[in-house]
Amino acid sequence: MVAFTVNGKAQNVSAGDDTPLLWALREHLKMTGTKFGCGAGLCGACTVHVDGEAVFSCQTALSDVAGKKVTTIEGLAPNGDHALQKAWIAEQVPQCGYCQSGQIMKAAELLASNKQPSRDEIVKHMNSNICRCGTYPRIVRAVQRAAKEA
Q1: For residue 5, how many other CB atoms are within 10 A of its CB?
Q2: In angstroms, rounded to a whole number, what is the distance separating the alpha carbons of residues 95 and 9?
Q3: What is the number of other CB atoms lying within 10 angstroms of the CB of residue 39?
Q4: Which residues pair with 54 in a beta bridge?
Q5: Residue spans of the chain under pLDDT 50
Q6: Surface-to-core class of residue 128, CB atoms within 10 Å of its CB (0-12 exposed, 13-18 middle, 19+ buried)
Q7: Sheet containing 53-56, strands listed edge to edge, beginning at the edge strand earlier in sequence
Q8: Number of C-alpha atoms within 13 angstroms, CB side, residue 79?
């Protein structure tokens, strides 16, 4: 049994210590906003925050989050009114939408530490997250919009 906090709520998950956090979230806690993309830490679709740091949940063992605070896309803003979520809609970022929760979580990490990032800083920070539809210009515009409106 691993105890940790998810989106402000204490959770206990009975699974092997080496179980990826992704599967603890999706299968045990039924939080499906975090997506399985590659399972190898190469695409970023599974990005969540652990104690405020963006991590690939497919590569994070359940034992690594014991006693820590995990934030998923569901907990970023329960009403969907986070500046990034609103900017994603305004800039019409998603096509298929599959990578978007991971993209938003990665962008939220950036804006938490850099309130007014430059375009180059956004591109560099977001580099670990892949969008197979190629909406990168929209993603950059959405992060810029959110930075102005936050």
Answers
A1: 16
A2: 32
A3: 15
A4: 49
A5: none
A6: middle
A7: 9-13, 2-6, 69-71, 47-50, 53-56
A8: 3
As a whole number of angstroms, the distance between CA 22 and CA 46 comes to 7
**DSSP three-state, residue 132:** coil
Rg from Cα positions in the chain: 15
Q: Which two tokens stand for residue 9?
A: 């709520």
Predicted TM-score of the model (pTM): 0.96
How much is the pLDDT for 78?
Answer: 82
What residues pair up with 48 in beta bridges, in sequence order?
A: 55
Nearest to 38 by CA among 54, 20, 13, 16: 20
Do residues 22 and 50 lie in contact, with contact meaning Cβ atoms separated by under 8 Å?
Answer: no
Q: d(Cα 45, Cα 114) in Å, to the nearest integer? A: 22
Pairing of strands 53-56, 47-50: antiparallel
pLDDT digits (tens, 9 = 90+) for 100-138: 999 999 999 999 999 999 999 999 999 999 999 999 999
Secondary structure class of 111 (helix, strand, coil): helix
Residue 60 CA to residue 50 CA, distance in Å, equals 10
* First-residue to last-residue Cα distance in the chain: 38
